Amino acid sequence: MLTTLHVSPATETDIIELVTLVNSAYRGEASQQGWTTEAHLLGGQRTDDDNLREMLAPENATILLARTPAGTIVGCVYLQHLPDALYLGMLSVAPDKQALGIGKQLLQAGENQARQLGLPVVRMTVISVRHELLAWYERHGYQRTGETVAFPTDPRFGLPRQPLDLLVMEKAVGL
Question: What are phi and psi of 129, to 5 degrees?
Fold first, then answer.
């Protein structure tokens, strides 16, 4: 476990590094070094500069970064304050740094932010056929709600190689 990580909000100056991190965690050859790859499910990129700028634009949204003491970004998570929950998405860890506890630390940082905002629930969506990822979230207290959401069909962010939908998961974080 990397215990000396610094977690802080992303800024505009982090976008280029973030694009590289997120795409390497989910798509392409580099992603296949880790267990979070979606390359077998989707072709193309996971995100781009414009998408990240759009995600960071609302006042109720942030991307938290996990940095090493040397300043290298090794993980991130997107958080958005909704009326009834904190939405958590795009949890990404560099493929060569996976299984070191970085994802867990970012998940806990999101849950802590929900408590600080007075939100009782953290909500996320996960591709329904990502069984290992669903199991990982369940081990961390997230439960399937039974709700599904259509998979987004924006060709900028990958074309599905099979029909996909998203499962909604939630965790009560207490206040």
Answer: -95, 10
Torsion of CA 96, 101, 105, 107, to 10 degrees: 80
Q: Would the pTM count as exceeding 0.70?
A: yes
Token pair in block for residue 55: 């995600």
Task: Classify burial at 132, counting beta carbons within 10 Å of its beta carbon; exposed 0-12, middle 13-18, buried 19 or more.
Answer: exposed
Task: Report percent pLDDT > 90 for the chain.
Answer: 71
- Sign of the torsion formed by the C-alpha atoms of 35, 39, 72 and 122: negative
Residue 1, domain member (yes or no): no
Q: Please report the DSSP string for 119-155 in residue order.
A: --EEEEEEETT-HHHHHHHHHTT-EEEEEEEEPP--G
Distances (CA, A) of 38 to 12, 73, 128, 165: 26, 21, 12, 13
SS3 at position 163: coil
Q: How far is CA 135 from CA 77, 79, 114, 150, in A?
A: 19, 21, 22, 21
Query: Tens digit of pLDDT for each residue in 65-80?
Result: 999 999 999 999 999 9
CATH of the domain at 68: 3.40.630.30
State the CB neighbour count (10 A cutoff) for residue 157: 17
Residues paired with 93 in a beta bridge: 75
Residue 26 lies in a domain: yes
